[in-house]
Each structure stands twice: as structure tokens, then as C-alpha cells.
Amino acid sequence: YAYKQTAQKSSDDTAATIFLQYAAALFVLPLIPFFPWQLPTSPIPYLVIIGWGLIGALGDRLQTTGRKHVPVSLASIISRLEKFIVLVLGIIVLDEPLTLPIVLGGFLILFANALVIRKDGKWEFNRYTLYLLGFVVTAAVGAVIALAPIRTFR
Q1: In this predicted model, what pLDDT tens digit does every residue of 90-100 receive, in sequence order?
Q2: Residue 90 burial (C-beta neighbours within 10 Å; 0-12, 13-18, 19+)
Q3: Other C-beta atoms within 10 Å of 48: how many?
């Protein structure tokens, strides 16, 4: 709700996206001293961070614009598709096992989205719904990018 209010009050979607990202960063900064860290010597973590940042920035922009023009109820249901896409990418990219509960859960997510997006016998797609779907895809890809190196180093 607060996200939608911030996005709606802004006349510029880019400014709203940047404001929300800075607000999140300021919230996380005080936690840094509680975690030990060191700079990696390999270039791979830096490339992962850059790729993740670019995909995340694109996703945040799509989300800000989409949520500004789509009802909160529809936006929240569409955002659940991220879990489904992560499941599919996890099976394809990370060799996660495919089990019956995963198949049933994925089907329920798809079915719930179909119920919400289809009204009065018509599919209610507009460019803002597609922006939210783009955000969902970028968020899922970002999650898989973040998880792939972890799986490699196990």
C-alpha cells in the first residue's frame, strides 16, 4: 500500500523508483557492521553484482510504473507469478528436483492469476499489467542469478 501511495504521488516514475531504492538502502546500511565481509579476488562476484543490479533496476522501474496504474489486488496476485518463474528456472538452470507438491503449487499460482486477470469473459491485459509481468520476470531472473553461485560453491 505504501509503495503504491509513493508511486502515485510522484509525477516522475524514475524519481519514485530512485527514492524507494535510496530509502531501502538507508534502512539496510545500519546492519552492515553486524556481518563480516571481505572483497573477493575473482571477477565473477563483481559481474554477478553488476548483472543483478541492472536487472533489479529495470525490474524496479517496471514495478513502479505498473503499480501506479494497476489496482493493488491485481498487482499483488501478479507478483506471485515470481515464485512460479523461480520454480521453473530452478528446475531448468539449477537442476532442482520436480516433485508433485511443486507441480501442484505452480498450477495453483497460475490458476489464481488466471482468475484475477480474466474478468467478464475477457483477459484484462494492458501495458501496465505487462509492466508488472516484466517486473516479475526480472525479479525471478535476479533471484536465480543470486542463487546460481551459491549452488556452485556448495
Answers
A1: 888 888 888 99
A2: buried
A3: 15
Within 5-154, strands assigned E span 118-119, 122-123
Give Dmax over CA atoms of the chain in angstroms. Answer: 57
Phi and psi based region of residue 12 (left: phi greater than 0; alpha: psi -120 to 50; beta: remaining): beta
**Which cell numbers in the block locate residue 103?**
507441480
Residue 7 in contact with residue 128, Cβ under 8 Å?
no
Whole-structure pTM value: 0.65
Find out whether 114 and 74 touch, Cβ atoms under 8 Å.
no
For residues 145 and 48, the answer to whether their CB atoms sit within 8 Å is yes
- Which residues of the chain fall short of a pLDDT of 70? 1-11, 148-154
Give the distance from CA 109 to its chain's centroid: 15
Question: What spatial distance separates the first Cα and last Cα of the chain, rounded to whole Å?
Answer: 38
Beta carbons within 8 Å of 72's beta carbon, 6+ residues apart: 1, 4
